[in-house]
């Protein structure tokens, strides 16, 4: 532990998943604090994963009921205000309960905006705190298009707090946020148009699977405009317009700018104290150390090729806890990080991707399975259900991608095989219960 020349052994800026491990560090006897400018817990619980998945639950249910039509009678519809009320009931208590848990573990929770005074001192709204080590875990904020009328557009955070669902929503971008929110809004009764930058949706995902999801959304009335070239947002007589293409205008009631997220690195004096960053985030070495040796970074704010997701942030936060407590001196070594787009059906993947396996086809075998014929998928009539399994030359599963209503669970189930490089013999020793998604997923290996 550090000498007490500083108030804290470790001070974290931010309180999201990039700071996971902080409670354990406190329980190990370290003096630690977290500074949070907004809500305790950061993006994921308050205006990211948890908030979104709460709104998505009724969407999932209506889709399932639709498939079971004639067996389950009636027509389910989503009541948006009730769905939003339920989201508030589930999500709003989270910051307080996280704060209680932190304080219970011995973490000091400081509310306010942190900026560096020097490499051991942080100023929070006029009060100074000193620490031996400081972790910058400040995350990202939504990118805003630099075009005329940009202030007329809203962010993912605004969507997740909409009291009333607009009749028409224009979504700019075709990534995670665009596709998940297009699914939720469309199924809740809104008319949705997606304005794409190029001609690909979810460009980092296996395109044959993405195309199935897009075709399904189109059937449900979502419109996609490729290569839209959005140039301005306007308001005339209470009506909003998106200017795109060559003089075209899309009338709309609400605009969602879903063009990505950018690092929270400004107004903190990072450059002044020597921490280096660019528009992808803060540069760190394999110990998550910035150019200033006692200052570290964790979570989305890091400039890294790892996906900017909660599991990555949690892994980094826990790594720092082990590093600071002397339990490791090694650099961080990432396991395969899974990811899922919560459309309906979902698209999930982990490990080696299909395009990579196709490019290096001498190293890999790709097995594509149409899962819609599996009896287990037939029970709830999944018609879009396919996976691609990627094996290396030792017959070990090294990557999976799946499109289906159960893709998230199926990928999670197969994670140990991918992460631990299980052999065929080891896989035979895993006996999932039956019937289950785990059994269905493991039987194809
Ligand atoms: C709409 C949406 C849906 C998502 N869904 C998923 C999902 O389903 N699954 C998934 O894995 N990931 C999802 N993500 C991504 C996930 O939320 C992030 O990867 C994760 O929250 C990153 O955690 P973090 O701690 O790095 O950053 P954050 O959670 O963003 O925390 C950073 C915190 O730092 C605070 N802060 C910033 N600057 C300062 C300062 N100077 N002083 C004090 N505090 C400061 C901020 O207020 C913020 O609370 C989603 C993201 C969004 C936007
Ligand atoms: N399920 C999940 O895990 C999940 C869900 C939501 C968000 N997230 C996280 O949040 C991040 C941000 O999500 P996102 O959807 O905002 O970003 P994204 O990077 O997934 O997608 C951004 C989209 O905006 C488009 N775009 C970029 N510049 C544009 C421009 N000038 N005009 C029009 N379109 C433009 C891109 O082509 C892309 O389609 C994700 O990368 C991910 O890390 C994760």
Automatic annotation (TrEMBL):
UniProt-listed Pfam families: Pyr_redox_2, Pyr_redox_dim
Family per similarity comment: Belongs to the class-I pyridine nucleotide-disulfide oxidoreductase family.
Record bears the keyword Phosphoprotein: no
InterPro entries, A to Z: FAD/NAD-bd_sf, FAD/NAD-binding_dom, FAD/NAD-linked_Rdtase_dimer_sf, Pyr_nuc-diS_OxRdtase, Pyr_nucl-diS_OxRdtase_dimer
Entry protein name: NAD(P)/FAD-dependent oxidoreductase
Alphabetical keyword list: FAD, Flavoprotein, NAD, Nucleotide-binding
Domain FAD/NAD(P)-binding: 8-317
SUPFAM superfamilies: FAD/NAD(P)-binding domain, FAD/NAD-linked reductases, dimerisation (C-terminal) domain
Source taxon at top rank: Bacteria
Disulfide bonds: 44-49
Residues of the signal peptide: none
């Amino acid at each position: 532990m550090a000498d007490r020349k500083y108030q804290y052994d470790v001070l974290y800026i931010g309180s999201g998943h990039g700071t996971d491990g902080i409670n354990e560090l406190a329980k190990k006897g370290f003096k630690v604090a977290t500074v949070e400018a907004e809500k305790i817990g950061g993006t994921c619980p308050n205006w990211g994963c948890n908030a979104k998945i709460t709104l998505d639950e009724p969407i999932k249910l209506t889709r399932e009921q639709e498939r079971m039509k004639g067996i389950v009678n009636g027509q389910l519809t989503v009541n948006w205000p009730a769905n939003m009320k339920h989201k508030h009931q589930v999500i709003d208590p989270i910051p307080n309960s996280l704060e209680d848990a932190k304080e219970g573990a011995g973490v000091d929770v400081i509310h306010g905006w942190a900026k560096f005074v020097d490499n051991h001192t942080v100023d929070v709204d006029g009060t100074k705190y000193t620490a031996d080590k400081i972790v910058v875990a400040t995350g990202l904020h939504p990118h805003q298009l630099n075009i005329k009328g940009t202030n007329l557009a809203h962010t993912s955070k605004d969507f997740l707090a909409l009291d009333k669902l607009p009749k028409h929503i224009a979504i700019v971008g075709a990534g995670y946020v665009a596709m998940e929110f297009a699914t939720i809004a469309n199924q809740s009764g809104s008319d949705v148009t997606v304005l794409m930058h190029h001609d690909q949706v979810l460009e980092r995902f296996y395109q044959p699977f993405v195309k199935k999801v897009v075709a399904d959304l189109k059937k449900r009335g979502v419109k996609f405009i490729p290569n839209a070239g959005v140039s301005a947002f306007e308001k005339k007589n209470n009506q909003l317009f998106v200017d795109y293409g060559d003089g075209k205008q899309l009338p709309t009631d609400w605009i969602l700018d879903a063009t990505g997220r950018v690092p929270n690195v400004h107004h903190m004096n990072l450059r002044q104290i020597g921490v280096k960053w660019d528009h992808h985030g803060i540069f760190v070495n394999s110990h998550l150390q910035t150019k200033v040796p006692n200052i570290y970074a964790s979570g989305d704010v890091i400039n890294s090729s790892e996906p900017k997701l909660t599991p990555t942030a949690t892994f980094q936060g826990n790594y720092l806890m082990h590093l600071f407590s002397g339990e490791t001196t090694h650099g961080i070594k990432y396991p395969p990080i899974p990811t899922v787009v919560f459309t309906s059906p979902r698209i999930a993947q982990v490990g080696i991707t299909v395009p990579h396996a196709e490019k290096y086809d001498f190293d890999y075998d790709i097995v594509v399975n149409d899962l819609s014929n599996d009896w287990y998928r037939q029970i709830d009539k999944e018609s879009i259900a396919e996976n691609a399994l990627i094996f290396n030359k030792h017959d070990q599963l090294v990557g999976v991608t799946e499109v289906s209503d159960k893709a998230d669970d199926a990928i999670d189930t197969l994670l140990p095989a991918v992460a631990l490089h299980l052999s065929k013999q080891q896989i035979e020793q895993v006996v999932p219960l039956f019937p289950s998604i785990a059994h269905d997923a493991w039987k194809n290996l």
